[in-house]
Task: structure prediction
Amino acid sequence: MATLSPEKTHPVVGKDELIHQVAAKSGLTLKDTSKVIDAFTEVVREEIAQDHEVRLMGFGTWNLRKVAARKVKSIRGGKQITIPAGKRVGFTVGAVLSQAATGITATAKTPAKKITPATPKALQNGTKKK
Result:
């Protein structure tokens, strides 16, 4: 079960809880599930370090973003200081995850049936109007 963090009012799912839930849904052992999650995080970390984008369709995309230098007011003394430019890991939420967060369930899209008007040939084949 998810635990409540002291500074937050919503449940937080930690790594151990995540391992238990994934193991329960996948039928894997806790040890195997732990290895899978560790391998997943390692691969994401390595790919991001190489400035590659990691994308799970519908879930989200991790990427490395360049952050420009910026000036901020120091909390010590109030002097203005410059934070140097750097890189930051970014995550963009995918459509399915976004819909889950808003309470909308994702459904498979089925193409609408195309309605064609009756042609003279169709009318000759026994579908005449009365």
